Amino acid sequence: CLILTILKILKYFVTSFYCHRLAFETMILEDFENRVLPAKNKLFRFAFRLLGSSEEAKDVVQEVLIKVWNGKENLAAIQNIEAWCMRITKNLALDRIRSRQRRPTDSIEAGVEIRNEMLTPHEKAEIHEHMQRINEMIAALPEKQRQVIHLRDVEGYSYNEICEILELDMNQVKVNLFRARNAVREKFIKINAYGL
Question: 92, 136, 143, 172: least surrounded by Cβ within 10 Å?
Answer without folding.
Answer: 143
